[in-house]
Write a structure and sequence with these properties.
Length: 299
C-alpha cells in the first residue's frame, strides 16, 4: 500500500532559502501521497509571498510560535501521514529521498526511524563536505550526533508512542529526540544513500551561538546519561576559545587553554575528570611546551 508522507518545514525569516527547500520537496518522484506542511512563525522578510505562490501544493500556516520545536510540534499535530519527514527552511532533499525512506521502512516493518547520508552545503547549494554519518550504535550516539536531521524519517507511531519534541530546547532539539527515542526502545536503521543537504551559513544557530549550543547539549546529556562524554567537553572548550576569537595558530597558549577549559568543563558537568581526559589534556600541554622550547632553542 502506498504511504502517505507528511513533510514538516518550520520556518521563520528564511526567505532567501525557503523556495529551494520547497522545490526540493515538490520535485520528489514519490509514488505515494505527499502532504507538505510549512509552519511559519510570522515571517516578515518575504517568506509569505513565496509561500503564496505554492498554496496549491503546500499547506502553510503563519502565526507566532515559541520557537523551532513548537513549530515542528504544531506540524506533527496536524500531520496525517504514516511517515514523517522534518526539513528545515534552509535545507533540501535530494532526488529520491522520500522513496528511499519509504522503501527502507517497508523492508523493515519493525524499524521506527530511518536515516540516510547527507552533505553539508553552502549558501548556493554547493557541497562543502559529507556529513559525518555513522552506523547505528546507541552508545556512540551519546558521544556524537551522527544523524543529520533532514536525512531522518520516522513513523507517525513514534510520535504517538514517545511524544513530540522538547520545546524547552533551542539548539539540540533534534539530537535530544534521537537520544530519547533510542533510550525508550525505538529501532533505527541507516540507509546508505545521500538523502539531504544541511545548509551551513552565518545565520545558523549552531554557528552563531556555539557556546550556548554546546552548553545546552552538555546539560541535556547530564539528564540522559548522568555523564557528559569527553568528546562534548572538548568541543565545548574549543567553542569557547573560537567564539572569543582566540587563534588556534597560537601553538602554545591555545592547547594550554583548551586543556584547562576542558578540565573545568568536566568538573562543571561531571564533577570529576576522567582518566582519559587527564591523559589527553596532559599530552596536549606537554606537546605545546615542547614545541615552544624547540622554537626558543632554534632562535
Amino acid at each position: 500500500m502506498p504511504h502517505r508522507v507528511s513533510v514538516i518545514t518550520p520556518s521563520y525569516n528564511q526567505g532567501r532559502f525557503i523556495e529551494r527547500t520547497i522545490q526540493s520537496v515538490l520535485a520528489q518522484q514519490f509514488p505515494g501521497n505527499l502532504e507538505y506542511l510549512v509552519m511559519d512563525g510570522g515571517s516578515n522578510d518575504g517568506t509569505l509571498a513565496i509561500l503564496k505562490r505554492y498554496d496549491s501544493s503546500v499547506h502553510a500556516v503563519s502565526e507566532k510560535d515559541r520557537g523551532q520545536a513548537d513549530a515542528v510540534n504544531k506540524g506533527l499535530a496536524r500531520a496525517t501521514g504514516d511517515i514523517i519527514g522534518w526539513l528545515n527552511s534552509d535545507d533540501i532533499y535530494y532526488p529520491g529521498a522520500l522513496a528511499a525512506a519509504c522503501e527502507a521502512l517497508d523492508s523493515h516493518p519493525d524499524v521506527d526511524v530511518v536515516y540516510g547520508d547527507a552533505n553539508h552545503i553552502d549558501e548556493h547549494g554547493g557541497i562543502i563536505e559529507p556529513y559525518p554519518t555513522e552506523p547505528w550504535n546507541s552508545d556512540r550516539l551519546l558521544e556524537a550526533c551522527y544523524l543529520c536531521q533532514p536525512a531522518v524519517f520516522f513513523r507517525k507511531r513514534v510520535v504517538d508512542r514517545f511524544g513530540p519534541l522538547n520545546e524547552e530546547l533551542n539548539f539540540c532539539l533534534d539530537y535530544e529526540y534521537w537520544i530519547r527515542l533510542a533510550a525508550a526502545g525505538a529501532k533505527f536503521l541507516r540507509v546508505r544513500q545521500v538523502l539531504a543537504g544541511s545548509r551551513l551559513h552565518a545565520e545558523t544557530k549552531t554557528r552563531g551561538f556555539r557556546i550556548r549550543f554546546h552548553t545546552e547539549i552538555n546539560d541535556m546529556l547530564c539528564r540522559y546519561a548522568a555523564r557528559v562524554p569527553d568528546s562534548w567537553l572538548f568541543s565545548y572548550a574549543h567553542a569557547v576559545l573560537d567564539e572569543k576569537g582566540f587563534p588556534r595558530s597560537d601553538k602554545l597558549r591555545f592547547p594550554l587553554l583548551v586543556s584547562a577549559l576542558s578540565l573545568r568543563a568536566a568538573l562543571r558537568w561531571n564533577r570529576a575528570i576522567s582518566r582519559q581526559m587527564t591523559k589527553t589534556t596532559g599530552a596536549w600541554a606537554m606537546n605545546a611546551i615542547r614545541n615552544f622550547c624547540r622554537r626558543k632553542i632554534v632562535k
